[in-house]
Amino acid sequence: MAVTIHDIARELDLSAMTVSRVLNRPESSSIAPATKERVLKAAASMGYRPNRHAKALVTKRLNTVALWIDHLHSSVYSQIAHACREEIQRAGLQLEICEMDWHFGKPESQRRFEWMVDGVIAVDPPEASALAALMANAPLDHIPRVNLGSAVSVAWEGDYVRVDLQLGARVAIEHLLGQGCRRIAYVVPAGLDRSGVGNYDAYTDTMRAAGKVPEYIVLEDLSLPAVRDAARRYVQGHGQPDGVFCHYDELTIAVFRALRDLNLRVPQDVLIVGCEGNEFMEYFDPPLSTVAMPARELVRIAWELLQNRMEHPEAEPKGVLVPHQFHLRQSAIAPR
């Protein structure tokens, strides 16, 4: 016969309400830690298994949080998803990861969700009107949501945590100029080579302010072989830039390989910097520089904001700005 909350309560001489609070709301601070530990140990030893449907009826919660994210192809988005899973599962909740395709996907491929969750963490969401259109048929207006990311074209309203990668990109370009670079090429996906995109504006404005001509390597195909080929053809057709800034780190890796194909050395011949903070950039030879968004810190803050919003729906919205991190490594330091 299945073990119930009442069985655990009798075993520990506690009220059923106390046991229910521990098992259904593990994040709650209203129960003493020692009591929580007793209840959780007894539940485990007695073989208690929660009934999610009954739990939802009692608590008015589904114990599920959604992560809305454009895709999981980039390593930084994968890091964010992994960190979210750790945070939310640590709280005893389930995580639904939803790939939204809201930046590079075709309109007909964008997901429209009609099922309910307790809260949402939305990573680099599109502008408000586009998000509203995407969710037009989903009854989600009242569901707590926290936005997380770095986009500058989004109106950061409500609860959010963001990192200013545009400032980080400007710092990186200024560094390359300070290292003596006279030609700095910017490797950017098609569609993001426009005003209003943070990295594009930072690169273009900084180059023009320095009296330099911007050079764009615009990518229609974002597969690594195609990026490698595009970078190689650009250098062959336009000559060698002495600096390269890449819109995100996977592009940096492909461009690095293209430079090696052309017998160009990093950093002796070309300095190179990426963006987003891919964890394995430092394991290249030479280690590759990057402007990083601290994924785990962003997720930790987003989860704190979402928990507060779920507990206090009427609280004032809160926005948090987290500093970028410029990981300066050998790839962007000119030999002396």
From TrEMBL:
<dbReference type="InterPro" id="IPR000843">
    <property type="entry name" value="HTH_LacI"/>
</dbReference>
<dbReference type="InterPro" id="IPR028082">
    <property type="entry name" value="Peripla_BP_I"/>
</dbReference>
<protein>
    <submittedName>
        <fullName>LacI family transcriptional regulator</fullName>
    </submittedName>
</protein>
<dbReference type="Pfam" id="PF13377">
    <property type="entry name" value="Peripla_BP_3"/>
</dbReference>
<dbReference type="InterPro" id="IPR010982">
    <property type="entry name" value="Lambda_DNA-bd_dom_sf"/>
</dbReference>
<dbReference type="GO" id="GO:0000976">
    <property type="term" value="F:transcription cis-regulatory region binding"/>
</dbReference>
<dbReference type="Pfam" id="PF00356">
    <property type="entry name" value="LacI"/>
</dbReference>
<dbReference type="InterPro" id="IPR046335">
    <property type="entry name" value="LacI/GalR-like_sensor"/>
</dbReference>
<dbReference type="GO" id="GO:0003700">
    <property type="term" value="F:DNA-binding transcription factor activity"/>
</dbReference>
